[in-house]
Task: inverse folding
């Protein structure tokens, strides 16, 4: 179908459309937002706010923006990686977060109500030791700053990163799964992912044993055990050659809102193999070829979708469109030019959805991307089941194929050669999925996958705006426009 004339190339959009920091409305709402992304200015501001003095006994030597998340009506959280030199001359790398508010009054309220009560709980902690003041306020921008593991929106982060406490918890749990830990083993907590609001993933090392911890601020981790058991059953019942591993949930600690999971062997190799193929470099050492890993992922997807498991909430295409509509409305308010472009694409997707027959709902992983697969030789595993749901199988398939392309945006081949590579991998996936799911053909699935792929790309544009990433906005928008024009 031909694309709507209003769907123009991303290159034609103004800076204020593509860069959230250039949005006049966002600047008016958060007057200090641009300063928050000025690394040199923030180095100086953090020096004063957390050290309480110009560079002297303690010097913040560098400050780099790590990631950011803007939430309309709340503010913007920015995380910085800072290099700190103490009085002895020793250097430390620390994580510092800043919450930008519309005004000083709301900033002071957050500092008083959410952050100040946490300061005493980090006394003696190595992570905050370099800072005489682990929390502080910057007047301009109106910004509360706090050193990891302090987080006003996730206060239990302090406890779950405390080695002594977690050592005791883990030593009492591990024998139940046949793992004995020496009495004198140290415990080390390693930060894995701290990008989503009110969520954090940690890796605990206790002797030779590794355990993952997922901290959630909404209690959703309480279902982790049931979900894990269901997925383990699916993995074990999968046909010969398709069986896959799922990490067991060791415990749910409600007082900490923390679920503890075993580590399963393997590495995420698919993304690196795709990049190597596109960039003409040797593939990472693996027992399987890229094509074979794609086929394994497809067969695992088919096993999930035909398992009959009823666990997880409903997630229909109407739910997807409603969620996108709400996010789109926010972007329209702050970036009207980009919003208008996306609204035209949204309308086109919604119209196509009305004219396309839905597939029956089934058990879905919900975040089915190549990064969720671990390969240990020819053995595979699947991780991260926070988003399991009852949805059309096209949801998972579209996520996998779309994000496979997103992960391989940089290619040394011609556009035609690059498209041919992805076409070949896509056909491999569909063939393996069709065999695994026992489908007579994949025509309707392909139609719905194309639709869900556009939804995935539109969501990526909207989330990239929320994450303040202009380059990602442009790349996702260009891919979305190509899909709409197809």
Result:
């Amino acid at each position: 179908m031909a694309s709507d004339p209003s769907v123009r190339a991303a290159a034609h959009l103004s800076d204020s459309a593509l860069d959230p920091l250039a949005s006049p409305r966002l600047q008016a709402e958060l007057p200090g937002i641009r300063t928050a992304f000025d690394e040199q200015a923030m180095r100086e501001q953090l020096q004063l706010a957390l050290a309480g003095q110009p560079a002297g006994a303690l010097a913040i030597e560098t400050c780099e923006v790590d990631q950011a998340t803007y939430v309309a009506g709340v503010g913007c959280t920015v995380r910085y990686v800072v290099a700190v030199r103490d009085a002895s001359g020793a250097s430390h790398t620390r994580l510092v977060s800043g919450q930008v508010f519309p005004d000083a009054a709301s900033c002071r309220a957050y500092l008083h109500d959410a952050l100040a009560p946490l300061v005493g709980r980090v006394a003696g902690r190595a992570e905050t030791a370099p800072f005489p003041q682990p929390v502080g306020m910057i007047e301009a921008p109106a910004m509360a700053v706090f050193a990891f593991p302090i987080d006003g929106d996730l206060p239990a982060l302090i406890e779950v990163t405390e080695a002594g406490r977690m050592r005791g918890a883990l030593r009492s749990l591990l024998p139940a799964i046949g793992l004995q830990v020496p009495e004198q083993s140290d415990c080390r907590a390693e930060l894995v992912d701290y990008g989503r609001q009110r969520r954090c993933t940690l890796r605990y090392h206790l002797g030779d044993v590794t355990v993952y911890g997922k901290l959630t601020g909404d209690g959703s981790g309480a279902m982790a055990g049931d979900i894990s058991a269901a997925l383990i059953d699916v993995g074990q019942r999968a046909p010969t050659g398709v069986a896959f591993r799922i990490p067991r949930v060791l415990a749910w600690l409600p007082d900490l809102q923390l679920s503890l999971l075993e580590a399963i062997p393997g590495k995420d190799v698919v993304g690196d193999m795709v990049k190597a193929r596109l960039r003409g470099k040797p593939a990472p050492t693996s027992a399987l070829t890229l094509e074979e890993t794609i086929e394994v992922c497809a067969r695992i997807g088919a096993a999930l979708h035909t398992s009959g498991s009823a666990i997880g909430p409903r997630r229909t295409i109407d739910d997807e469109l409603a969620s996108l509509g709400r996010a789109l409305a926010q972007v329209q308010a702050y970036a009207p030019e980009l919003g208008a472009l996306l609204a035209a694409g949204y309308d086109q997707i919604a119209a196509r959805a009305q004219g396309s027959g839905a597939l029956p709902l089934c058990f879905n992983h919900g975040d089915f991307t190549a990064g969720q697969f671990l390969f240990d030789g020819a053995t595979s595993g699947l991780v991260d089941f926070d988003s399991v749901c009852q949805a059309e199988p096209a949801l998972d398939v579209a996520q996998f194929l779309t994000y496979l392309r997103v992960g391989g945006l940089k290619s040394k081949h011609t556009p035609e050669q690059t498209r041919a590579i992805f076409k070949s991998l896509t056909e491999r996936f569909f063939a393996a999925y069709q065999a695994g799911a026992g489908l007579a053909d994949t025509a309707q699935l392909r139609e719905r996958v194309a639709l869900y792929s556009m939804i995935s790309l539109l969501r990526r544009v909207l989330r990239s705006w929320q994450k303040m990433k202009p380059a990602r906005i442009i790349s996702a928008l260009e891919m979305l426009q190509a899909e709409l024009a197809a």
Summary: The mean pLDDT is 90. DSSP finds 16 helices and 14 strands in the chain. The first strand starts at residue 59 and ends at 71.
